[in-house]
Each structure stands twice: as structure tokens, then as C-alpha cells.
Amino acid sequence: MLEIRTTCENCEKPLPNDSIEAMICTYECTFCKDCVDNILFNVCPNCGGGFEKRPTRPKAELKKHPVKKALVYKPVIKNPFLDQYKDTDPRER
User: Fold this and answer.
1) InterPro entries of this UniProt entry (predicted)?
2) What is the DSSP letter of 34?
3) Sign of the CA dihedral 13, 23, 67, 46?
């Protein structure tokens, strides 16, 4: 089950279930589009993967599978994968 995190891990911007700005990597690390584009350059600081738009969980399913309540806040000081992957397509990493 996909974990729906409700804030950007870097800047704590609210990213509710229906946010069009939520981006995730394959490990469900969650960042806002602004951080992905302008700080992370589409390189996840936790795994080195790329980001895709997070899907929206249907409202009818939220009672059965609610969004995550605990917040994840890990501001990016240094992205260990940035130099290695920023010029490589995520599907080629």
C-alpha cells in the first residue's frame, strides 16, 4: 500500500492527499515539486532515484487506508547522489 505522506520532507510544505505538487520516489520519499525541481534536481537524496507525481488516493478509500499522520522532516543539507546522477535520466541510474 502506497504511503501518502502529507508534507515535503525538505521544507515541510503541506502536501495533502489531493495535492498536485506532491512528488515521490520509488521508496515513497515525498517532496514538493519546487524542492524536486530547484533543490534536488530530480535526484532523491535518500536513494538516488528520480521522482514522479504522487497519485491521489480516492476519497472513498481514505477511511480504509488513511494518509500517514506522522510527519517526516529531513531537510536536505547535502544530497550525496546529486553530482553522480543529476545529468543521468532516472531510468538509466
Assistant:
1) DUF1272 (IPR010696)
2) H
3) negative
Cβ–Cβ under 8 Å, residues 50 and 40: no
Cell of 61: 478509500
What is the model's pLDDT at position 87? 96
Please give the backbone phi and psi of residue 30, each rounded to the nearest 5 degrees, phi first.
-125, 125
Residue listed under C-alpha cell 532515484? 49
Q: 47: which 3 cell numbers?
A: 536513494
Please, are residues 78 and 39 in contact by the beta-carbon 8 Å criterion? no
Write the pLDDT tens digit of every residue in 28-54: 999 999 999 999 999 999 999 999 999
Cβ pair 21, 32 in contact under 8 A: yes
The pLDDT, as a whole number, for residue 69 is 87
Tell which residue, 32, 40, 39, 42, has the closest CA to residue 12.
Answer: 32
> What three-state secondary structure class fits 7?
strand
User: CA-CA distance, 2 to 55, in Å (whole number)?
Assistant: 9
